[in-house]
Please model this.
Amino acid sequence: MPTAALVLYPEALATSVTLPVEILHAAAQMSQSRRGLGIKADIQLVGLSGKSTVTLDSGLRLALHGDISTVENCDLLILPAIWRHPRRVLKHATRWLPRIAELHAQGTTICSVGTASTLLAETGLLDHRPATTHWHDFDRFERRYPAVNLKRRHLITQSERLYCVGSVNSIGDFMVHFVEQWYGERIARAVEAQFSPEARQSFETAAFLQASSGAHHDALIRESQDLMQLRPEEAHSVGSLAALSGLSARSFGRRFHKATGETPMRYLLNLRIREARALLQHSDLALADIAWRCGFSSPSRFSQAFKRATDLSPRAFREAVRGKRFGAAVNSAS
Model:
């Protein structure tokens, strides 16, 4: 069961609280409706001073589950976006920020939203690591935290278990990524489709990803991954990839799975689905052409594989991601 906590201070923007909570709840509900899963989620809103509620500057009052000092065994901790300058939060942060560093040391993944990256920077956890913040705060942040490697061109940064997202919108991209880690590709894509897919870009596209200790260093396997990424439309097989690597098919399959956590064919299928999603969203190619370009032997096989992965047909996905285009209103005088 994934456990998540969101730290609430009066200056927090409610949208950076409600969106992560709703995405996690949606993923948990979807997992419970699928045979063999049923992974619930434990989501807590925690305050700073032992009170039972917090009233945000927007006037919204939220009930709290506890205090940040009581948070234990947490998989994900979110620091919501701060409305306007973060100085008001920083003024009272010295008494609870050490707990953030303690949780990280215990294995908690931490994500800051917008100018809440200031809170992470104050702990020292971001020193000599990549980070981002709200664009309006770039200059101040860089002056105050010269040891942090500010990434102005990226909406999301990652360094091991520390994530910064630059805006409230980007927290949705991160949450879909987090859902994929816990619930798998299929549920992540289904959640993504429900939460405005036209506003989403892939986590990998938005993020600056720093290599972590979990990254593999098997050069032979990386070569086969590079080949599949470069030519996903080709008729790759375990045998053909193994031959290029100089390994037996059995040894190659085991080594590939050990390095990536996936079988070679599952890895290839996920590549093809991601490519198909991009073409459906950004091109006017016919479905048959997309199927061919992505390596599917027929439009029907493409449609079946795409729906298994995303819970949407290719046509329905294209309609969803293009569903909020604005046209010019034409008013004629009578």
